Structures are given as C-alpha cells and as structure tokens.
Amino acid sequence: MENAVSIRELSKVFGKTPVLKALDLDLKKGEFAVIFGPNGAGKTTLLKLISTLLEPTGGSVFVSGFNVSEEPEKVRKEVGMLSHDSYLYGELTARENLHFFGKMYGIESQELEKRISQLLTDAGLLTKANERVSTFSRGMKQRLSIARALLHRPSLLLLDEPYTGLDPGASLVFENLLKSSEFQGSTKLMVSHNLERGFALCDRLLILDKGKFVYDESKEDFSCFEDFREKCGPMLT
Ligand SMILES: Nc1ncnc2c1ncn2[C@@H]1O[C@H](COP(=O)(O)OP(=O)(O)OP(=O)(O)O)[C@@H](O)[C@H]1O
C-alpha cells in the first residue's frame, strides 16, 4: 500500500544555516505520529515542507504519492494544517471564510454548503456564521480555524502544537472532531512539546534534534507514559 507520506534525504537550509539534514520518514496510512524535540530542532519547518508552504533545498517529499515540488495543488487537497496561524480573513464572515477555502479546494457548491453548516455546528459557531471574523474572540477564531483545516476532508492532518493557545472549548471541539469517524482513518502528524498529551494520542513517537531524527519507536514499546518519559525525557532538554 502506498504511504501517506514518504520523505527521502530531505534537507532545508535557511541562508547558510542547515535546519533539516537528509531526513527520511515514511508514514503509513492511518498512522498517528508525534514529533517531539527541543526548540529550533526543525519541527515546524518539516510540517511546512510537507504542506507545500516551503520548498525543500534538497531531497523529496511525497504525500499520497504526489511530489510536493511538482504537484503542490494535489498535495494541498490532501493536507489539513492546524498551526498558530489561523489563515483566516478578518474582513470576511465565518461562512464566507469557509466558502472561500472550500472553493479553493474545488468542493462542489451544494456539498460545500452542507459541509460548512455541519462544521459551523460542530464548532459551535452556527449563530455567528454571518459575523465578520475580525469581531470574533480568540477562542472563536480558533474554532473556525479547526473547521477550515478539516473542511476538505484531508487524508493527512498536520498538527503544529494544536493545543497551544486553544481554550478548553476549542480543545474539546478539536478532540471530538479528531475522534469522529470521518477522521479516524486519516493520517496524523503532530508536533508537540506536551509529552503526556502527545504520548496519549499517538501510536508512533519520533524525536527530532538539530535537523535529524534521533528516535523513532512505536508506542507499543512502552508499558506506560512514565516509562517513555524516563527513557526519552533526557533527550528533550
Ligand atoms: N523562514 C525562516 N528563515 C530563516 N530561518 C528560519 C525560518 N524559519 C525557521 N528558521 C530557523 O530554523 C530553525 C528551526 O525552526 P523551526 O521553527 O522549524 O523549529 P521548531 O523545532 O519548530 O522549534 P520550536 O519548538 O521552538 O517551535 C530555527 O533556528 C529558526 O530560527
């Protein structure tokens, strides 16, 4: 079976600084992997390369068999990215924002209207659908950006510190959507500094340090979280 993500010899240099160094990574379809690592290790850079927000300096990244450098539009249809950036337009209403992104993903009109209403309901924003996003509280914007990331039913979810800055309500919306049948089969790659939460959610644990993977194990290899923390905690300081 084709991998959800296939990365070979991936490198990224900013100016003269090498940030990612000949990385290899395969993610199987449906896998939930979490990447831990110290500040500046290159975690966000890796997610941006997979999502086509950045161009590799060398090597290759394939998402569902599509090369990110050669077929970025096809890759974008596969990927839903949730990060600190909300990627929302303040001057548009919540519904207009989702409509804009839905059209960009090529979702057919009737299906899109149904999808938008469903996600606004799931996010608890249906009564605010026609209000401008610039008038939204931070929590409301967070909920809407979750809806935006999931709008096109991506097969690959890239989650960059998804809980940072999420209020309890938005965290619940996020967890419920992640657990929903719709996303149970999707592949998930999460970056996190929260060891306990990351461990609880994932089935594979990776550690990135100075642009290289220094650790890659299945969660099954650990009897419990404390076991993992004892073995890997020291690598993360
Ligand atoms: N656009 C950019 N231009 C120049 N340098 C950059 C750029 N983006 C990231 N970097 C540098 O690349 C390195 C890795 O950054 P990155 O954000 O990927 O790390 P990270 O592992 O996600 O860190 P953190 O855990 O602190 O979020 C850092 O030294 C950062 O300053």
UniProtKB/TrEMBL annotation:
Keyword annotations: ATP-binding, Nucleotide-binding, Transport
Domain ABC transporter, residue spans: 5-235
Family matches, as InterPro entries: AAA+_ATPase, ABC_transporter-like_ATP-bd, ABC_Transporter_VariousFunc, P-loop_NTPase
Gene3D superfamilies per record: P-loop containing nucleotide triphosphate hydrolases
Single GO molecular function: ATP hydrolysis activity
Name by which UniProt lists this protein: ABC transporter domain-containing protein
Species of origin: Methanosarcina acetivorans (strain ATCC 35395 / DSM 2834 / JCM 12185 / C2A)
Organism lineage string: Archaea, Methanobacteriati, Methanobacteriota, Stenosarchaea group, Methanomicrobia
